[in-house]
UniProtKB/TrEMBL annotation:
Domain named MacB-like periplasmic core: residues: 20-252
Main localization (coarse): membrane
Topology relative to the membrane: Multi-pass membrane protein
Transmembrane segment boundaries: 21-45, 298-319, 344-371, 391-410, 444-462, 693-715, 745-765, 777-799
Domain ABC3 transporter permease C-terminal: 303-420, 699-809
UniProt-recorded name of the protein: ABC transporter permease
Source organism (scientific name): Segetibacter aerophilus
Gene Ontology MF: a single term: transmembrane transporter activity
Any coiled-coil regions, as ranges: none
GO terms for cellular component: plasma membrane
A UniProt-annotated Pfam family: MacB_PCD
UniProt keyword terms in alphabetical order: Cell membrane, Membrane, Transmembrane, Transmembrane helix
Length: 816
């Protein structure tokens, strides 16, 4: 029986090739999008789920409140870990570790005639044996209990061991030497297998914690309870039954016991436990090397997948119910011969199943191509492999069953309800234009074009916000500026000055400045500063930047009060921004000049006030800021280039000369420069990716909707062939016939526009709330989207309606 159903289904689909093709391609596009989005969502949601007892593992994070402003930090005070291990209960493990900031130079002697030197090593961490209680590593050599117990010892992942010692097995690598930044010699004491599952813990070189504690690498504030850094991480594994709230309260008591609080201090510090599963998605605290994923974006992508899949299902329902009259005699004969309603429903569902199966096979073939198209922002580990990813097969099976029921159940009920007497009397077509089925088709068509127009409007709004973000005046100059970093470990202060002298002699350079980082940067340096004015005391967290006297000139920061900084090797005065001046209580910037700020136990005068500028992307509001001059911290060389000449070679020539000068001063360092405006553009990579995805989704939504519209027009013109012939014989023109056929469809699209506008406005308004500074939702976005949709639909309609209108009426009336 089943074989018979499939055979009949295949013959029916083959007989109606045009409608079958429209349905298959419509469903295939929706299923392809669903499959790609499933892979992406599953990839992100699987992070660190492989960890044993992952529901009991938490990161201790810090939160601060200064003058009503809330700040977050993923790190803790250095001494908190030891105190927690000794004094806190309800914990199975206390796991501290400290990340290595920036890149490191790694040297491996004895590998060849010359030492192997790797200048940009990342993923280095200081840890003890407890770290391997947190993560489930497979040990290839050494032991987790002893490998990191002693100073100057290191554990490597298998991938790093192969890079460092390419001709040695893991066991042979034990005892070999590795040097970091030429100053720290380490002995390899263990090799672990790289973690194959998705994880945010991307560290590959583990240096013993004792090395950090007992050498010159020991941080300055190692014993301070008043200093928090994101480098110092602390994880806790709670005992079974232990309460998160109880542990947080115990940590608060521990901090209160050890941290000294000054009288009049209005700041507040508290620690919370961040679940392991939250690390991959929480932008307040961040991850270690991988970008933070957005659950809101993932849910948005799921919605896109559902909508595209829904469009394909709507096409199927529309076309199948529209074709009902053509299958009426078949149904009448089946019922007359004893066919039951249940058998008919099963027959039509089997047709839907076969069509969905074909669409799924096609979508699986499309998926690698789609992944390649979006390879720019799809994670490297994302791929499709049905053999090694059984979850994908399960997803596809569920998808096939769901689509079969969703798209096929209603049409099968409609078709199976035909009465044999009515069918065989050829009365099934009576009043087809006014039947409930016709209204259902119109409602579904409206739904299709609502979805398509919402996509169009959203795409235009996202593009408008990106353009606004990239072109908004952020309060500084960003064009024709490059910057580069000098060696952090260079102890010869004269080198920076020599480099600046060489750069100033290059004619293609307009100005040079030395600073910590540019005005806008992902790197943040902040600290607590106090201002006292009689009885009033204002303490807040203030961002800090340091630069020479050319810093505000090069970036064209506007000085609204006071004067520029005077060059100094140590911090003797500050410039502050308007936001900080207002926090201190000065509505007029001039009144802040000459006042003193308590910073690092010193009273530092305010030399001037600069106009506010965005220190980060437009997602974030402007924060209070101090700019000082401190030669010891300034290692970023900022270079303003001269305008391009007519041949466009000024910058290329200038950068070549900059590289030559840099190599003369730092011959062993890599020359790595960045254009400042390109760094600003990277702030909005996420939005640009969303824009690209929306563009594709919009194109697919329009394509699927127009496929469905084309199918309905083909059906309508076929049903009205004789009517069109009669009208032509009676003198109707081609334009009149085209208008007659098209007006109902265009009316549905206009209705869809009316519904789409408020829905789009709500969604766009909600998305724009992610930006502290945002564009407006302009009226022309809606008008343009409506015009695009109507134009596209009119072209789709015109293709078939004009063909029907110019057909010879003699052929259509020949059988009348």
């Amino acid at each position: 029986m089943l074989k018979n159903y499939i055979t009949i289904a295949f013959r029916t689909l083959w007989k109606n090739k045009a409608f079958t093709a429209i349905n298959v391609f419509g469903l295939a596009i929706g299923i392809s999008a669903s499959l790609v989005i499933f892979l992406l969502v599953n990839y992100h949601l699987s992070f660190d789920k492989f960890q044993k007892d992952n529901d009991r593992i938490y990161r201790v994070v810090s939160n601060f409140s200064f003058s009503g402003e809330i700040y977050h930090n993923s790190g803790v005070m250095d001494p908190l870990a030891n105190s927690a291990r000794i004094e806190l209960t309800g914990l199975d493990a206390v796991i501290p570790f400290r990340t290595w900031n920036g890149d490191a130079k790694v040297s491996i002697p004895g590998v060849a005639k010359e030492p192997l030197v790797l200048k940009h090593e990342k993923n280095i961490v200081f840890a003890d044996s407890n770290y391997f209680n947190l993560l489930n590593y497979n040990w290839l050599a050494g032991s987790w209990r002893s490998s990191l117990n002693n100073p100057y010892s290191a554990v490597l992942t298998a991938s790093n061991a192969k890079r460092f010692f390419p001709n040695l097995t893991p066991t042979q690598a034990i005892g070999k030497q590795v040097y970091i930044d030429d100053s720290v010699g380490l002995t390899v004491t263990g090799i672990v297998q790289d973690i194959a599952a998705n994880t945010d813990f991307t560290f590959k070189t583990f240096v013993s914690y004792a090395t950090l504690e007992k050498t010159s690498l020991k941080p300055q504030n190692w014993d301070s309870w008043g200093s928090t850094t994101g480098s110092q991480q602390l994880f806790l594994k709670l005992s079974k039954g232990a309460s998160v709230k109880q542990v947080e309260d115990k940590i608060a008591g521990l901090v209160k016991k050890n941290k000294k609080v000054d009288a009049g201090d209005n700041s507040k510090t508290w620690h919370t436990l961040q679940p392991l599963q939250d690390i991959h998605f929480n932008g307040d605290y961040g991850t270690y090397d991988l970008p933070v994923a957005s659950k809101a974006t993932l849910y948005g992508l799921l919605a896109v997948a559902v909508f595209l899949l829904l469009l394909g299902c709507i096409n199927f329902i529309n076309l199948t119910t529209a074709q009902a009259s053509q299958r009426s005699k078949e149904i009448g004969i089946r019922k007359t011969m004893g066919g039951s309603k249940r058998q008919l429903v099963f027959q039509f569902l089997s047709e839907t199943f076969l069509l969905t199966l074909l669409a799924t096979i096609l979508s699986v073939a499309f998926t690698p191509l789609i992944l390649k198209v979006f390879s720019g922002f799809i994670p490297e580990g994302l791929h499709i492999d049905l053999q090694s990813q059984p979850l994908i097969i399960l997803f596809l099976v569920i998808l096939i069953v769901t689509v079969t029921l969703l798209a096929g159940f209603y049409p099968s009920l409609v078709l199976s309800k035909f009465k044999p007497v009515t069918v065989l009397k050829n009365q099934v077509n009576a009043n087809t234009g006014k039947t409930r089925n016709a209204w259902l088709r119109k409602s579904l068509t409206v739904s299709q074009f609502v979805i398509a127009q919402v996509f169009i409007m959203a795409t235009m709004l996202v593009s408008k916000q990106i353009y606004y973000s990239l072109n908004k005046d952020m309060g500084f100059k960003k064009e024709a500026i490059v910057y580069l970093q000098t060696n952090y470990n260079d102890t010869v202060k004269a080198n920076k000055r020599i480099l600046l002298q060489k750069l100033r002699a290059i004619p293609e350079i307009a100005m040079v400045s030395l600073s910590t980082n540019p005005p806008s940067s992902n790197s943040t340096w902040s600290g607590t500063a106090k201002y006292k004015d009689g009885k009033k005391e204002v303490e807040t967290d203030v961002q800090q930047k340091y630069g020479d006297t050319n810093y505000i000139k090069l970036y064209q920061l506007k000085l609204v009060a006071g004067r520029n900084l005077v060059h100094s090797d140590t911090v003797r005065e500050f410039l502050i921004n308007e936001t900080y001046a207002r926090i201190l209580g000065f509505q007029q910037p001039q009144k802040a000049v000459g006042r003193y700020i308590e910073w690092s136990d010193k009273q530092i005068p305010i030399a001037g006030v600069v106009a506010d500028f965005n220190q980060k992307s437009l997602h974030e509001p402007i924060k209070p800021l101090m700019i000082g001059s401190w030669d010891n911290t300034e290692r970023t060389v900022n270079i303003a280039l001269q305008p391009q000449n007519s041949a466009g070679t000024t910058w290329k020539t200038g950068i070549a000369k900059i590289e030559k000068a840099f190599k003369e001063v730092y011959p062993n360092d890599d020359f790595d420069y960045k254009f400042f405006n390109e760094d600003i553009a990277k702030y909005y990579e996420s939005e640009q990716n969303i824009s690209s995805l929306l563009t594709w989704a919009t194109g697919l939504a329009i394509f699927i909707s127009c496929l469905g519209l084309l199918g309905l027009v083909i059906y309508t013109t076929t049903q009205r062939t004789k009517e069109i012939g009669v009208r032509k014989v009676l003198g109707a023109s081609v334009s009149q016939i085209v208008t007659l056929i098209s007006k109902d469809f265009l009316g549905l699209i206009m209705l869809a526009f009316v519904v789409a506008v408020p829905l789009s406005w709500i969604a766009m308004h909600k998305w724009l709330e992610n930006f502290a500074y945002r564009t407006e939702i302009s009226w022309w976005i809606f008008i343009t989207a409506g015009a695009v949709m109507i134009t596209t639909a009119f072209v789709t309609l015109g293709f078939q309606t004009i063909k029907a209108a110019i057909a010879n009426p003699v052929k259509s009336l020949r059988t009348e």
